[in-house]
Design a protein that fits this description.
alpha+beta; Aminopeptidase; Alpha-Beta Plaits; 2 domains; 10 helices; Peptidase_M20_dimer; Bact_exopeptidase_dim_dom
Length: 418
Amino acid sequence: MTDPSPNIDAADSAAIDAVTKRIDAEETISLLQELVRIRSPYFEEAEITTFVYDWLDARGLDPELHQVTEPDIVGFEGNNVIARLSGSGPDAPTLLLNAHMDTVQLVEAWEEDPLSGRIEDGKLYGQGACDMKGGLAGIMVAFEALAAADIELAGDVVFTAVVDEEGPYGLGANQLIRDDIVADCDVAIVTEPGPTLAREDIENPALILGARGRFLHDITVTGEAAHGSQPQTGTNAVVDASRLADALTDIEVGSHEQLGDGSICPLKIEGGSETLSVPEHCRLLVDRHIVIGETEDRVRADAERVVERLDLDSTVDIGFREAPAADVRYGPYVTDADHPLVGALSTAVETVTGDEPAIGYFASVGDFNYFGHRAELPTVIVGPDGENIHGAGEFVYTDEVVDVAHIVAAGCVSLLSA
């Protein structure tokens, strides 16, 4: 901790000091090691859910399991973990703290145990260490410190540790919205790793104030089967899908002052077989990251214009990936830099690190889009950085995990103090 920021008064400074003194660096990193050593790919979070619940329960924080279910597409059933600290002021804002418990599937290229939690040179290694068990550990210890310190908060703090952020639909965060768990929340802090996935070249301490959105095209191309020795007698759906994939990358995407440019990336072409037949059907998946102002209608129309221009012999159906509901999608958002949440976190960063935070915007999507766009909550990402996210050799900087715990706790006090 550094000297208090000149932007806070003596009472808030004393409250921040009381809370942050409750955060022990060694205990925070020990907790992170325990989290990393639990295997928790998306859809397989039962063990880590139990761990987070028991950790909160052992500290008298009254956690609850919140059922998450999606029976129709993926058949998933699991649980989020939620807890609440009640403030004293009925008109004060309620702050949401969010992190996800899952990781991507374990990557085979690791040259060591991908769940080792090994620490070397200030780096803690393991699948999900940075994305985002470092951030999860940060909000766990921050939430405990807020509860244990002898301070009064005017506003509530809602803790949520969710499942399936890395999966296809963000089912955990979606369920929070569906079941009105966040209906009374006014602002949100998500402790995803920020700078490493920001569109700008920035370093921590940093506040990420927005993110691009995303559509996933699911396109069907239908040609005409024929014998493979006479391809001219049929219409090859794979060939036409390949032409379409290439042409879609030339679409003029939108641009935004904070979020930058949109992007288009073909992800998968699936069709045909080894039998000697001209492929009749082909499926094409295309990622399109969008900025504010790019709607579903515009995205569809852009693709349809490309199809019309190509004048393919195949029939093309422009669609989007199936989702649990029409609103389950990642919309873009920007949080105003002048919002009180940003001010509170800026003050917290200066108090904890002595530096002013860099300001950035996320290049991709995550649960924060659901809070910032769907739930319309001013949402800020503040998380520990690292490298090799989703890959072999993933690590998180341990000092930044501790800093994030301090920043989140101090930010809560700065925003919600009575």
